[in-house]
Amino acid sequence: MGITLGQGIGAEEALTGESRSAQHPGSPAAPLTAPLTAPRSFRLRVPATSANLGPGYDCMGLALDLHDIIDVVATPRRDGDRPQVTVSVEGEGAATLPRDATHLVVSLIERIMARHGVGMPDLEVRAHNHIPHSRGLGSSAAAVASAVIIADELLPDGLTDEEKLQIGSRVEGHPDNYVPALRGGVALSWQEGDRFHTVPLIPHEELRTVLAVPDVEQSTAEARGVLPEVVLHADAAANSARTGLLVHALTSAPELLLAATCDRLHQEQRRAAFAPSMALVDSLREAGHAAVISGAGPSVLVLAAGDSAARAAWSHIADHAARTDDMWTPAILPISRAGATVEEYPR
Ligand SMILES: Nc1ncnc2c1ncn2[C@@H]1O[C@H](COP(=O)(O)OP(=O)(O)O)[C@@H](O)[C@H]1O
Ligand SMILES: N[C@@H](CCOP(=O)(O)O)C(=O)O
């Protein structure tokens, strides 16, 4: 997971890049403002994402039509001192995720609100999780985007778009999953100093996405840990060319996707961490499909040009699964144009 909260730099700095006292002179001694004067009730949908897309390591990603759903009920605090927080989780993570204020989404909401000088209301969070965890589909980025959007809803003045971009990118540590989880579509993002920037890419109308999800997990932190500190100049140069080509292929020339998805920075270096996934990528690419490792793996993503190419990739994955002992679930999943969206419930 790319979470930096509470690691290395302090949690407050991870959220804003500045100390609280710099933004709120007089704090941290200043008490938090009481939250909410009226109850709020809403549903949040946040998409899965596939990062890297081959050579776009830590900078490119797209949102997929597979969503976590969170129902939120926020009410003014009954007990003045402590917020009452209840968490329920169905689906992915139901057996493992905490049900208290240490839950990633809840703890991050609390930190963002505190950073803005506002205390937590009483909060009921009901998570219906559909994004598989630790499969390279951005579940942690989706959780971070959920927290940012819920905090935006609960803060009296909300968050600006710029704050939403900075906070979540900083917490995740890299923006490639987080930005499409927040904003949808396909995104190219970069960092200058401690500021994150992003531009949307408008995908070509023929672009299709096919996903193959295995029944094994791979922690993102571990997959990042195996990457070398230094890359050869020749690899960096080759990767630059393919990343530039990838922007062109995604937006204007899907027939170039196979050449454009050739990576020199991370997939081969991580092969031992997800050998069956690399075998599937190799097999798909030999057959002409633009297959890549999704995020830090172990899922595999195919970028296809048109419906029949997408169906052929789907069949190739199903045949590969039948030939090997590996369990793969293939799916043709559209790109989600919407990112994290909120629907209000009347009370
Ligand atoms: N919806 C969620 N709510 C709370 N925590 C989550 C949620 N989704 C993911 N996480 C946390 O993130 C971890 C997975 O993160 P990571 O290893 O980065 O893989 P992924 O590629 O799925 O983001 C989970 O084990 C869990 O601790
Ligand atoms: N660029 C990151 C992407 C991690 O994505 P995830 O979905 O596996 O969390 C990396 O390759 O480490």
UniProtKB/TrEMBL annotation:
Pathway: Amino-acid biosynthesis; L-threonine biosynthesis; L-threonine from L-aspartate: step 4/5. Its EC number is 2.7.1.39. It catalyses: L-homoserine + ATP = O-phospho-L-homoserine + ADP + H(+). One of its GO terms (molecular function) is kinase activity. The lineage of its organism: Bacteria, Bacillati, Actinomycetota, Actinomycetes, Micrococcales. Its main location: cytoplasm. Gene3D superfamilies: 3.30.230.10, GHMP kinase, C-terminal domain. PROSITE patterns: GHMP_KINASES_ATP. Catalyzes the ATP-dependent phosphorylation of L-homoserine to L-homoserine phosphate. This is Homoserine kinase. InterPro entries: GHMP_kinase_C_dom (IPR013750), GHMP_kinase_C_sf (IPR036554), GHMP_kinase_N_dom (IPR006204), GHMP_knse_ATP-bd_CS (IPR006203), Homoserine_kinase (IPR000870), Ribosomal_Su5_D2-typ_SF (IPR020568), Ribsml_uS5_D2-typ_fold_subgr (IPR014721). Residues 17-36 are annotated as: Disordered. Belongs to the GHMP kinase family. Homoserine kinase subfamily. Residues 104-185 form the GHMP kinase N-terminal domain.
